[in-house]
Amino acid sequence: MATGPDRPQAGELNADIPHVRDQRAATRAVHVGRQAVYDRAGDVVAYELLFRDAPDAVRASARGSYATSQVIVAAFTEFGIKELVGDRPCFVNLTREFLVGHLPLPFDAGQAGLEILADVEVDDAVLAGVANLAEQGYTITVDEFVVGQEREALLRYASYAKVDMLHADVHHVQRTIDRCRQHPQVQLIAQRLETEAKLATAFDLGFELFQGNILGRPHLVTTHVLNPGRLQRLRLLTDLSADDVDLERAVATIERDPALALRILQGVNAAS
Fold first, then answer.
1. How far apart are CA 5 and CA 24, in angstroms?
2. Which terminus in the chain has less CB density within 10 A, N or C?
3. Strand-strand pairing, 187-191 and 27-39
């Protein structure tokens, strides 16, 4: 009988058992970060949904279109938006590709608000895209707004503007607030509040809403879902990409993989 460091561990032995390998391959863990937004009374009024790719992740490892897509898929098909945020509004960070229409938004205006990341260059295409989304009824939030950064044109379409308080100069923050107040529909969110002093300053400056680790760190929410077979997904993608789609063949492909069928049904229900 093997002893010492060369002795195989139970997990290693189990990993070699076929049905254990199959079970692990059939399911996977899905993670979403969720950070609350609070009002002046200390009540949670909304959530921001954040990309997380590991159970021990404390911050996003990516903020691009891939991260946005993963958050959307997880929120609306893996968790279910109601199960994730209840009856409170939620906001999803968006990159340029979603704002200008290169990538579609698979949810309607009543299901989630849109947060425009600070690194999105505001040009005519972005402004036109944001105007179109606002006209459709989407709630727009301008992330990390600072006066003088050529992002002020976004305010006419926004319902919220976030102001970073972590290293902000109070006088510069006041200028930013004054600029935002020229748009009466915009509510101000003080973000990245890390200390009691910063929270007190934000209160004194008249912010309506507050977000930061002093109030509550992002909470990691995890669920385990069935993992559709890669071959079946590839076949379905091929079937649906054909010029003349054979729906019977596509349906047959879906029916052969219960996990794929479940995921498609969840997606359809979310879109509805």
1. 26
2. N
3. unpaired
Place of tokens 């049905």: 19
Q: What's the rounded Cα separation, in Å, for the pair 89 and 49?
A: 10
pLDDT tens by residue, 46-58: 999 887 654 444 4
Please tell us whether the domain made up of 28-223 is placed in CATH 3.20.20.450: yes
Rounded Cα distance between 220 and 32, Å, is: 6
**pTM of the model as a whole:** 0.72
Give the chain as a 3 state SS string: CCCHHHCCCHHHHHHCCHHHHHHHHHEEEEEEEEEEEEECCCCEEEEEEEECCCCCCCCCCCCCHHHHHHHHHHHHHHHCHHHHHCCCCEEEEECHHHHCCCCCCCCCCCCCEEEECCCCCCCHHHHHHHHHHHHCCCCEEECCCCCCCCCHHHHHHCCEEEEECCCCCHHHHHHHHHHHCCCCCCEEEEECCCCHHHHHHHHHCCCCEECCCCCCCCEEEEEEEECCCHHHHHHHHHHHHCCCCCHHHHHHHHHCCHHHHHHHHHHHHHHC
Q: Which residues of the chain have pLDDT under 70?
A: 1-28, 52-65, 223-242, 250, 253-272
Quick check: 185 and 205 in contact, CB under 8 A?
A: no
